[in-house]
Design brief:
heterodimer, A: mainly alpha, Ferritin, about 70% helix, about 0% strand, B: about 80 residues, mainly alpha, elongated
């Protein structure tokens, strides 16, 4: 990233996203703590139990494991900031789908907090995009 | 075991740290906003004060906290084990 604001935003939002991983991990840990294999099976987690027991293994709703191949980075600040903004919107909508699938108030409160963070991140990335564009337009004047 | 007092103080620290983090993100793209910076610095100071009180009473919060002998950092509860 070409400007200090962008380096800071990318670093700090990246760090916060790792914390979100910990929040989701904690949520799943607490929801499944002490659950028997039969209880897990009835909750639709039989396949997860078979391969991972109570381990917090990152995979999507269809069981496809997370992989670093999902991370996009072109080296072009404009393209990469748009990628980040799209990722925030996709995360927001996924949280909304997850909220629609539960009636547990604690789970809804946690997911609603995380959803809101993606909105704030989208805002910060949008500001960063404008600052980077401003910088790149100026750079042509030598 | 841990007390209700410990959990309450931890929750207060987490709330203040969230404010600090949110203001930090804002300041990343608004470095010239004097009011946001004042708020950031005030909450940052308050967080350090409370963390110092917490650690004196209940032990290290993070791995670069100072510890008594034997190393207290490894003690329970870990964040995912706390019942709030």
């Amino acid at each position: 990233m070409p400007i200090p604001q962008a380096k800071a935003v990318l670093t700090d939002i990246g760090t916060e996203e790792f914390a979100h991983w910990e929040i989701i991990g904690t949520l799943i840990y607490k929801l499944t703590e002490g659950a028997t294999p039969e209880q897990l099976r009835r909750a639709g987690l039989g396949d997860h139990y078979a391969q991972h027991d109570h381990a917090l293994y990152p995979h999507d709703a269809a069981g496809v494991p997370w992989t670093a191949a999902y991370i996009q980075a072109t080296g072009d600040p404009i393209a990469d900031l748009h990628e980040n903004m799209a990722a925030e919107q996709k995360a927001r909508t996924t949280y909304e789908h997850l909220i629609n699938l539960t009636d547990d108030p604690g789970v809804i409160a946690t997911l609603a907090f995380l959803r809101e963070r993606e909105i704030v991140h989208f805002q910060r990335f949008g500001e960063t995009l404008m600052l980077v564009k401003e910088y790149m337009n100026k750079k042509h004047i030598f | 075991m841990y007390s209700k007092d410990m959990v309450n103080l931890l929750k207060e620290i987490m709330a203040i740290d969230f404010v600090v983090y949110e203001l930090a993100l804002f300041l990343d793209t608004h470095p010239n906003d004097r009011r946001a910076l004042e708020d950031h610095n005030n909450f940052s100071r308050r967080s350090r004060e409370l963390r110092s009180i917490f650690e004196k009473k209940y032990g290290p919060l993070v791995l670069d906290s100072e510890s008594e002998f034997p190393y207290q950092y490894i003690n329970n509860p870990w964040p995912w084990e706390i019942r709030y």
